[in-house]
Amino acid sequence: MGRTNACLVLALALAGLLAGAAGCPVGAQPMAPKADEGQKVFKEACAGCHKWHGGGGGGYGGAALSLRQTQLDRAHLVEVVGCGRPGTGMPSHKRDAYADGACYGLKKADLGQDAPPEANRFLRPKEIEAVVDYVIAHVQGKGDPTLADCEAFWGAGARTCGEYRPGGAAPEAAKVGE
């Protein structure tokens, strides 16, 4: 393994230390995973049905299940995001999901009208992995959403988070200039 590759591996293994701190040559940058990529994908592809907090509820596809309460493991979550859920409103986010039998061993013709709808936005495999990792780390098993959860999703002081503040008020900084 070359010096640059070894440094990249070392930098990633040490939880994102900067390349210079890991002793890599100047210009060798580790390919640090984007911590917010999963959240970004969740906002764009999932929050419309599962809501920002992942608690589910009504959406364009019907009543979405709670990701906060799901017992699915990572492999099953990846499969469901990619393949959708036959017979439900959960769309498939993988392009041509049922073309070759890769989803649940079924093809679109096998499912007929029970075939999951196609999502408005298809996801690449890395995006599916990122959104599943986000759900596992920040949503699954976390109980009721809190102000901290809301602000982690929308940003500190977001008006959307008012219902989680004492008295439901917006923070003083957000009230300035109203």
TrEMBL record:
PROSITE patterns: CYTC, PROKAR_LIPOPROTEIN. The keyword Signal applies. Residues 33-139 form the Cytochrome c domain. Keywords: Heme, Iron, Metal-binding, Signal. It holds the Pfam family Cytochrom_C. SUPFAM superfamilies: Cytochrome c. It comes from the Bacteria. Residues 1-21 form the signal peptide. InterPro entries: Cyt_c-like_dom, Cyt_c-like_dom_sf. This is C-type cytochrome. It comes from Benzoatithermus flavus.
